[in-house]
Amino acid sequence: MNNRIKRLNRLLLLAIAPFVGVFAVLVLQPHETHIPLDLESYKPLTALNKQTSDIMTGLQQAEQVAVQTSASIEKTTRLYNRTTAAMSSIVRTASTQAQKPEQIYNRRITTRLGAAVERVNSQRIQIELYRLNPGSYHAYAMKIKLRDPDAMRMTLGKDSFGGAETTLTATQRYGAIAGINAGGFADSAGKRYPLSTTMLDGQYVSGFQPSFKDLFFVGMNHSGQLIGGKFSNQQKLDSLSPSFGASFVPILIQNGQKTPIPDKWQKTPLRAPRTVIGKYKDDQLIVIAADGYNENGSSGATLQELQDKLYKMGVIDAYNLDGGGSTSLILNGRVVNHPSDGSLRPVATNFLFFK
User: Where would I find the Phosphodiester glycosidase domain in this sequence (predicted)?
Assistant: First the structure.
């Protein structure tokens, strides 16, 4: 029995011996723990803090510069706005002053014409219609300011050499706002051909013909200015850069002076429906269409009367266009004058005006 107890005790000692050893180590081992400190690992963190500090300082300086710059820009902007406003005022004043001579001159023109009965105004053209009743004849005057050289054109009757159409038909076909008959014509073999030198789109329709007898050429140059006169050679006419034009008789005023009217044209006929075209020194155009009841010389205006009227109106160049039954004045789609034939006559050429 005792032996059995001894064997059991030895067995228990052997079983707990490892645990006793571990316990002894834990009890006897010192408790102080040393954690190594590596200062090198803290250097990046210190550098990062310095960079952050530098950035913050830079941002503060940038903010101060920005505030100063903003104030400078605001000051410059105010100065610029004041300068711009002052310059705009100067430009407006200068523009107004520059327009005064033109306005004064135009007022002088319209004073001699009376009150306009109809107006057309656009970016391309300005038209004013007046009634003229000096006593011996009745007429209509159309004052035209071309703001665009292309606002006036010449057309051939039905767009063909030898063709003919009324001014009303031409305005309707081309969509023009106004129109008048242009040069003279001659009939041959059922065709109606324009007289002498005729130009269309800068080209001679049937070649250049030197002026002879009382014929003249009248038309527009590429700048929208009325040109005309007698031309002995093509070079002389070409030097004026003509765009279009037609021919008839006679010249009434040139370079501000009355020109002698040949006896033939003073008497045959004495009075008649007339169409004349002229210009003022500021390049405004004037068209007069005088009414008459026939072509036998008993009604209408004389060339002398129209010449005197134009001269007193301050016109510097004026030319007599085809008249009689050819006289046509169209505005806003209607016939303004009273054709002596009772209806409009088909003509070889027409001057058209576009809105």
Answer: 174-354
